[in-house]
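[Automated response] Your request has been received and processed.

Submitted sequence:
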Amino acid sequence: MDLQLKGARAIVTGGSGGIGLAVARGLLAEGARVALVARNTQRLRDAARRLGTADLLPISTDTTDDTAVRAMVDAVVAEWGGVDVLVNAAATPSGGAPAALADLTDREVAADFDTKVLGYLRCARAVAPHMVRQGAGRIVNVSGLNARRTGSMSGTIRNVAVAALTANLADELGPHGVSATVVHPGPVEPKPPEVRAVLAETTSLRRLVTAEEVADVVVFLCSPRVAAVTGDGISVAGGNRGAVHY
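Generated structure:
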């Protein structure tokens, strides 16, 4: 199937590694041009070197800074004339045992929220006028399976908030031809073998998904062919064992 992404102008935040980098690689393989966005300049350079293509525009940006986000989008528009796709994946991944209620600090929750929820909002707010003007656009927010289960107080709060943000974007921008979806990955390989074995038992497939498998779904959602899907969340986690969502 032709995803009709050839020549598309895409922004991928969190693009220096993990799911963001895999998404960038997938979009490039479909013929899209990709603005690769990350906070760490050296990691961004290394990622751009690995991708090695003229269709790549690396831009070092901290998505917790609204002025920096707007400057990044302006740079993409100046280079390519517009934005067709935004993939928000810039967030600190969950890792280790989540803090118990008594140990969870305001600062931790606020930092998670500022980076993931407000960071995604800042990027969507900056690209929306360009997408609305051209009457088309795709926004895909990478959230997490904590939106659908307990176990990490801060993780659940931020990921549920991303889902709520996505639904609101879909309703407001939909009449202008812009759709928004949210993807909920579970834990992604690589993990230490002992951790991987435990986490794998929580999935229907009894294995962890890879960043590339998540990216395949995200790239598909970036396609104009999927414009009828908006506002909803899609789990890409190998199944959330024991849970029913409808």
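Summary generated for your ticket: The mean pLDDT is 94. The chain has seven helices and seven strands.
If you did not submit this request, please reply to this message.
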